[in-house]
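Appendix B, example 12.
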Amino acid sequence: MTASHFLDSEVRSYSRTFPVVFDRACGSFLYDISGRRYLDFFLGAGALNYGHNEPRMTQALLAYIERGGVMHGLDMATRARNAFLDRFHEVILAPRGLDYRVQFTGPTGANAVEAALKLARKVTRRSTVLAFTHAYHGLSLGALSVTANRYYHDGSSPRSATAFVPYDGYLGKDADTLAYLRRLLTDGSSGLDHPAAIIVETVQAEGGVNVASSQWLKGLSSLCREFGILLIVDDIQVGCGRTGPFFSFESAGIEPDIVVLSKSISGYGFPMALNLIRPAIDQWKPGEHSGTFRGNGAAFTTAAAALNFWADPAFSTRLGEASRLLHNELRHLQERFPDLGLSVRGSGMIFGLESSSPDTNRQAVRECFERGMIVELCGAERSVLKLLPALNASNEELRLGLGILGASFEAVRQKTAPLAVAAEAR
């Protein structure tokens, strides 16, 4: 037994779900120390949209290291930082007609959420922030205050300046949750203080792959403008192409006041986070918000290389084709197992499978792992099976994963069928 067996904190999670020791990775695959291969449809919870150790990024990184490039620069100007900013403007912002300032925060998504909330309160001189049912924005204190799931709250996290309102579809498909929000905002006796900001995920990834409609997002944006509320879009997990376009809000035709990016913005799995800020609200004083590791030269280098995917129109075309393949095959899987009560939802290259019995998906995750595939659960009760294949995965890799998923559901059905028969006999 090695020291790792007794030194690791009880807080560890994924090593319990996937109880092997991983050694190396390439593209869509992880390999354990015995050499066994695992198809990765989890990808660091969305931090590796282009797969593991993507070759062009690897080459850029090695060249940067070999020439002694600056690895840690705080917020000093470095060649790597400037190169990323120039490339980001050229490939992402300018073609979309977006005018944002870029703030590099601490290296995690939660760090960026903290900065966004802090700036919104500073600009508006108001304290209340609205978040949504099933929201997940991180687990540091500020980010945790706008995270909905009770599992993460032990009574120590401050919630006094946060209010939660229903997300699109939360009250049923025919309920108008924006009308409810408007009523709260216009009624001086609703008990809701005028908010500084509303923070939203266009697709609630951890919340269960809940997809907001473009109409709902447009309505939310209009409400924010009407009432002078800043709109913050959390694109940490579903940005950088995960829903199809680079930004998840593009299809809705809205322009948030603040956009939060992390996870796959570095392209390679390096810690990196940033906020895009509308120039009129970039009201920070120099050094007013800081972070020791906001100047990661390695992350800037791989992030700039990752943008080469988006400079090629063929990449977006291929992404759309892969999304349709995945969606169609998941629908077929749903039809194949009517007794499991599967429902499919998602967009682009993020999909969720919910079952009428939450334990079905818990068993399916274990069966997938036994067959050499890594997937995870999400949702309020951890009952939705979430699929996050690489954006550049081949059709063969997608079909391999779908085949493993089908075999896993078949195994779950075979195991549960005798139990159902026995229950009926009783």
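The chain is about 40% helix and 15% strand. Residues 395-425 form the longest helix (31 residues).
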